[in-house]
C-alpha cells in the first residue's frame, strides 16, 4: 500500500490553522493510507491590516495565494472559511467539499456588558464588517461603530485593551478557538443576519484531481452544502463579495429550505429584507429569487453607492 500525500495550503492565523488541522484530522480519520502536510502561507488580506477591509477592495484577498499554490502544484487542497471564499473560482479549481457547519450566528463580546440591548447610549462597538455595521446602526443609531481589523485574537486584545465597549465576531471562530466563554450573547438571526457561509468550512482543490476528490468525499455535509449554496447564490446574483452590507441565512426543516436575505445602507438608514422558501432541491434558484426580490426593492441602488464610496 502506497501512502498518498495531501498538502494543505493554509493561512497562518489561529483560526485558519485550526480549520486546516481539522481537515487533516478528518482525512486521517477516514483513510489510513494518507499523510497530510500543512503548508502555511501569508495572503494579501493578512498583510493589508491598516486599511478598513471594505476599502481595500478586490475579492478573495484571503484566498488568492492559496489558489496559486494549488494551480502551480505546490499544494493539493485549500481550506477556507466559506464566508471569505469569492463566489467564482479560477479556471481549474473548484469547491469540492463543504464540511458540517459550526454555529452560524454572530456573537456579542464584551467585558462589562451582557448583550447588544444593554449597551448604553453612545457605546463604542468594534466591527469592520459593513453587514454588521448596517444592522447594528439600524437597530441602535445612537451607538458609535468603529473599525476593528485583525484576526480573532488581535480583535479580542483590542477589546481587552479598552478601545471598545463591545465587539462583534462570528461565534464559530470563538468556539473553534476554544473561547466560547467570551460569547456574552449569540445574536439571533432575527436581529442580525449572518454572512453567507458563516461558520462553514469549505475545501477547494483542482477540478481534475480525481485522487484528491475521492479522498475528500467523506468530509462532505449535504445539509450544510445546500444551505451555503442557497446563501451564496443570493450573493452571486447581487454581485456581492464578502465586504458588502449583505446578509443571508438558510435553514432546512424536513425538505423545506427557508432563506432570508438583507441588503442595507452602511449607515443603517435603509434595510431591505426578503424571505423565500421552497424545496431543498431548489436551493440555488431560491437564492436567485431572493436576490431578485431585493433588487426589486432597490438593492442595486444601495450596493452601487457602497461600491462608489470605496473608490
Ligand atoms: N472575515 C474573517 C473571518 N472569516 C471567518 C470567520 C469566523 C469563522 C466562520 O465564519 O467560519 C472570521 C472572523 C469573524 O468574522 O469573526
Primary descriptors:
binds the ligand NCc1[nH]cc(CCC(=O)O)c1CC(=O)O; Porphobilin_deaminase_cofac_BS; 25% strand; 13 strands; alpha/beta; 311 residues; Porphobilinogen_deaminase_C_sf; D-Maltodextrin-Binding Protein, domain 2; 11 helices; Porphobilinogen deaminase; Double Stranded RNA Binding Domain; porphyrin biosynthesis; transferase; five-stranded mixed β-sheet
Beta-strand percentage range: 15-25%
Bound ligands, each once: the ligand NCc1[nH]cc(CCC(=O)O)c1CC(=O)O
Low-confidence stretches: none
Structural domain tally: 3
Tell me the series of helices and strands, N- to C-terminal: EHEHHHEEEEHEHEHEEHHEEEHH
CATH top level of the largest domain is: Alpha Beta
Pathway: Porphyrin-containing compound metabolism; protoporphyrin-IX biosynthesis; coproporphyrinogen-III from 5-aminolevulinate: step 2/4
Subunit structure: Monomer.
Enzyme class: transferase
Keywords: Porphyrin biosynthesis, Transferase
